[in-house]
Write a structure and sequence with these properties.
Length: 157
Amino acid sequence: MPAANRPFLPPLVIAACAGLLLVQGCAGLQAPPESDTPAEAPPAAQKEPVKKTPAAPAALPQTGPASWYGSQHHGKRTASGSIFDQTKLTAAHRSLPFGTRVKVTNLSNDKSVEVEITDRGPYAGNRIIDLSRAAAQALGMIDSGTATVRLEAAAGN
C-alpha cells in the first residue's frame, strides 16, 4: 500500500500500546505477596524431629563464657524436639546428650542453677553454653548478657 494511503498512527498511540505491552509482560514477574502466616507444612514434614545425640559428649567440668537466649526462640521447637520455654531452666550445648542435667555456676558471683540440655548451640563466639532466660536470671547475668561459668554434672547424673 502506498505511503499516502496508510493510516497514520500518532506517536502517542504507539507509546501507549508499547507501555501496555510492557506492563502486561512484567505482571507475571512480580513476586507473590509475603504472608505473616507460614504455609502449612505437608503432613510428612510435621513428624517429630529425629533426636540426635553426638557420639562423644563433652567431658565435664568445663569453664568458659555463657550467654542466654529468650523471647526470639520462645515457643519454637528445639533440636531435641521439645518446645523452648524461656521460663524453664534449660540450655543449649554443642555436644552434651539431650536430657543431661548440668550445674552451671557464674564464677563472678558464685550463683548456681541446674539446667537440662534440650537444644544445640551456642553458635556465637567461643561460648560453651546458651541458657534460657530463667537460668540466666538465676545466675544474675540478664543485664550483662554473658558470664564466665563452670559446668559440672548435676547431682544424680
